[in-house]
Design a protein that fits this description.
Length: 241
């Protein structure tokens, strides 16, 4: 029987926790013991819980993540999660397992978790073959149900219109009869993000934010009410002040 890795998440932004929980759910050997947006509460939880792996944010209001890292003093393995790269060198002085920059993709998350097997021989038994990471897929499009490949590296955004989904590239658009929910499930472990009931965009092609409109490549796309706060926070975390 494969031993499970008991995990905890400490981040003062709930949307960041939610993304990590999505990634955690894809790996059967990871078990979330607790999550909290309150660093001080995390200290008490860590004291009374047996944790193998902690996902820890750095920039938090109550207590800086690096200060919390010093306090727990090697109680568990730590993966730092942050929007800022300037603490990377300092963090490794405390023996962290990895340093993940937000927004965190599943592929990068998986690489970090797999480092457990390199740091602890016992942990090697934790690392099973993960569920397949989607790199591309095919859809039916055009007459006679022609099947075409969706090139995810060059995909800019996806748009839902009625019973159809449009995959937008630099020089072409591919239309297929699908739901956006189905496409979102396929892209859940890749650097794409839902911004509206009708739009999913490639994170690499986000160029800026103007009011309630997101600049994606050379398009202005609306932010839905449900997604607006999360997108704004993601961009704010990467904004130099």
């Amino acid at each position: 029987m494969v031993k499970r890795i008991r995990c905890a998440i400490v981040d003062d932004e709930q949307h960041a926790i939610d993304l990590l929980k999505i990634h955690l759910a894809k790996l059967d050997f990871l078990e979330l013991t607790f999550e909290t947006t309150q660093p001080l509460k995390a200290l008490e939880l860590l004291k009374n819980s047996s944790i193998d792996l902690l996902f820890l944010d750095i920039q938090m209001a109550e207590l800086n993540g690096l200060d919390l890292l010093k306090i727990i003093n090697g109680k568990c393995k730590v993966i730092l999660t942050t929007a800022y790269s300037e603490h990377a060198l300092e963090s490794y002085e405390y023996g962290v397992l990895d340093y993940l920059l937000k927004p965190i993709t599943f592929n990068r998350f998986l690489l970090a978790v797999q480092k457990l097997s390199n740091n602890n021989s016992e942990a090697a038994v934790f690392i099973e073959s993960p569920k397949t990471v989607v790199k591309d897929f095919f859809v039916k499009s055009g007459i006679r149900n022609a099947v075409v490949k969706i090139d995810l590296d060059n995909l800019i955004y996806i748009e839902s219109q009625g019973n159809y989904v449009h995959f937008h590239f630099e020089k072409e658009t591919i239309r297929t009869q699908l739901t956006l929910k189905k496409v979102e499930e396929e892209l859940a472990n890749l650097p794409f993000i839902r911004i509206h009931q009708s739009f999913i965009v490639a994170i690499k092609d986000i160029k800026g934010l103007e009011g309630n409109m997101l600049m994606v490549h050379n398009k202005s796309l609306p932010l839905g009410d449900k997604y607006r706060e999360g997108i704004r926070k993601m961009i704010q975390e990467k904004t130099m002040l």
